[in-house]
Fold this sequence. Notes:
With about 425 residues, this protein is α/β, with parallel strands linked by helices. The protein has helices spanning about 15-25, 65-75, 110-120, 125, 135-145, 145-160, 180-190, 210-220, 255-260, 265-275, 330-335, 370-385, 390-395, 400-415; strands spanning about 5-10, 30-35, 45-50, 50-55, 60, 80-85, 90, 95-100, 200-205, 225, 235, 240, 245-250, 280-285, 295-300, 310, 320-325, 355-365, 385-390. The chain contains 14 helices and 19 strands.
Amino acid sequence: MPHVHTIILGAGPAGLSFAHRLLQLGDTSFVVFEKENEAGGLCRSQDVDGAPLDMGGGHFLDVRRPDANAFLFTFLPEDQWDTHHRKSTITVHGQDIDYPFEANLWQFPADLQQAYLDSIAQAGCLTGEPKPDTFPEWVTWKLGDKIARDYMIPYNEKIWCLDDLNELGTYWLYKLPDVSFEDTLRSCREKRLIAKMPGHANFYYPKEGGYGHVWRRMGDALGGKLLLNRAPATVTITPLGVDEFTCDRIITTIPWPEFVRRADVPDLIADSAAALKNAPVEIAYYPDNLPSPAHWTYVPSPDIKHHRLLLRHNFCPASRGYWTETNAKRAAEWGKRERPTSNAQRPPLSNHPLWKHVNDYAYPLNTVDKPEQIKRILDWGADNGIVGLGRWGEWEHMNSDAAVEAGMRLAETLV
Length: 415
């Protein structure tokens, strides 16, 4: 059996970055297993209607990660990327306002502004109430009942499709924009954004080839070390190996439920992997150019199928149209029920999308028990030469630039 120092499962941003950082550090004894016919994972792109479309949903490179960017620019130079100032909106009350919501209430009519401000003023975080432990209560405690009711609760119900949002924990909410009540008031008085923009305030997007362009180049640069169309069939723990290869360690970026299906793991680890939850997402492309300057738009209304629109013609050169993102479970249920005959918030959709794709693993869910379950899995892995990396290996909602940094840092730690 061929032996290598490291086997890497998955050629998405994390796996590719780990592999190339190994090469830079002089470690050439590895192979990368990838089930698809090209590298990129959720960040792959495909030509649809004459231009690239990002089949994993909306992915952009944040300018605020210089190490990750410099690393990626060695494969796709900086002059082959466009720089954009983020324009994202939220559709509420038939109107698009800029993101983040609470920092742009000033864009609503005066009576709505006042209603939201009155609600925020009574939020528990301002009146001294203790911080709650469940997600729905936390949203109301932090933002007031009106923002919770009009935006945050329905949006999260759509994107996660959980029976009960109380299944979500609160440990991850530090990632949400944190806009003070004082800044919200000031923005309404001065009619301008006061708070800082959150992540991806400015971002890079390739001039050609879609977001998948850089990952294809990284995959091609691995040559024979990248095994395409090779989903691992069997993972053995003793001796450690995958299919015909043995190794000293396995770096896995694939979802843990997929890993344990291929490996003889203890029942407790299999149960922990089964307890992890994720959201599948359907991507659907429409050829219409929408009359909006936004790069993407969040849509919380339960009367509309999708939770997000990405207006391709506003960030992908020489393209037209947009695509929608919908939880795949919601998409399947939506087809069984009668659709509203009219809705002021609905974009002028064509009758049918020109293209669809379902990502079975799109977003990991931050359920209440996830930290306990993933820690148990990762601890077991560490005892057996197996390391979880990236969005699925660490079960974190990790953007591609963060996954690149995680791959680089792990390689530097292990070599």
